[in-house]
Design goal:
InterPro entries: AH/BAR_dom_sf
Number of domains: 1
CATH class: Mainly Alpha
Protein name: BAR domain-containing protein
Radius of gyration: 58 Å
CATH architecture: Up-down Bundle
Distance between the termini: 204 Å
Helix content: over 70%
Shape: rod-shaped
Number of strands: 0
Number of helices: 11
Length: 323
């Protein structure tokens, strides 16, 4: 099959690819487009990974809230046993969940900005891929133009050396094909030049538009997270410290009560029978007064008798002398 066959050329191009022009005037432009295409592909992959990471973070954030509620909400609210719980820590769980939910809502509300940034980056990459394809089509047109140029030279040399009756018709047919190839190359070359210039000129602007959406997305979510800072940095730690202090007080009071109960158990006790016998044997003040009359004071006569002096021995001796 001759090289001039269109089928063979297409088969060769599909297998080994299209050869770039040896002396391409757009070589520097093409290198710039290739470098830009690599950057755009990396940007698109980065934004897609960023969006995926945010989705995964939202899922993890939800798991964190569920875990916090499982630990800090009273067990009776979770279908468990009736056990003592700290209301202060229950408030901590509710506050933490509320703040995290607020951050998650902000992520959902601003997700369109992130999706738009990813979409624009993908569009940029597609445009560069299309431009790369256009460069390849330009190479094909240049190759076809070169093919008919070489063929026309060969036909002209053959016509001069060995004139034939049908040579003029062959030259005319291939001359038309050569002109068509030249026109096709000029057309695709103009399109590629125009598109390449626009793409390279808009390189910074297109990326700036994507960056603007990313900045807005990050800023809005940062504000949402900033509103949670007082709760995370001050309120929740203070509530936890207060709960710890209350727990220490409760434990100390419990220990004191246990010690007091232990002392009362160790103190000696009087048997009930001993208490009853003691009560019978020892009259009370009221019973003594009821059973016995009060002592009577001595009468006047008795007082007088008791006040008379007894006769002394001297008086007895006088009386004996008188007798």
């Amino acid at each position: 099959m001759p090289f001039s066959s269109k089928v063979f050329r297409n088969l060769k191009d599909s297998i080994v690819g299209v050869k770039e022009q040896d002396e391409d005037p757009l070589k520097a432009t093409r290198l710039a487009v290739d470098a830009y295409s690599k950057d755009a592909k990396a940007l698109c992959q980065t934004l897609q990974a960023f969006a995926k990471a945010n989705d995964e973070l939202d899922g993890v954030r939800g798991d964190v809230v569920k875990t916090a509620k499982a630990f800090l909400l009273p067990m009776d609210q979770q279908g468990g046993l009736q056990v003592a719980s700290d209301p202060e820590l229950t408030k901590v769980g509710n506050l933490f969940s509320s703040e995290v939910d607020s951050i998650s809502h902000s992520k959902k509300d601003t997700r369109q900005l992130l999706d738009d940034a990813v979409s624009e980056a993908s569009a940029m990459q597609r445009r560069l891929d299309d431009l790369t394809t256009a460069f390849n089509e330009r190479d094909k047109a240049a190759e076809l133009m070169s093919h008919y140029k070489i063929k026309m030279q060969a036909l002209s040399e053959e016509h001069i050396s060995k004139p034939k009756k049908d040579m003029d018709d062959r030259i005319k047919r291939n001359l038309v094909k050569q002109q068509n190839a030249v026109e096709a190359y000029k057309r695709v070359d103009t399109e590629v030049r125009t598109e390449a210039n626009q793409v390279l000129e808009n390189r910074q602007t297109d990326f700036a538009n994507i960056l603007q959406k990313m900045c807005t997305y990050i800023a809005k979510n940062s504000k949402s997270q900033a509103t949670a800072i007082p709760a995370f940095e001050e309120q929740i730690p203070a509530m936890i410290q207060e709960s710890k202090a209350n727990l220490q007080k409760t434990r100390a009071a419990r220990e004191e009560a246990a010690k007091a109960a232990e002392k009362s158990e160790k103190a000696p006790t009087t048997p009930a029978s001993a208490k009853e016998s003691s009560a019978v044997a020892t009259p009370t003040a009221s019973s003594a007064e009821g059973d016995h009359e009060p002592d009577k004071e001595p009468s006047t006569a008795e007082t007088k008798d008791t006040t008379k002096p007894d006769p002394s021995p001297a008086a007895s001796a006088d009386q004996t002398d008188k007798q």
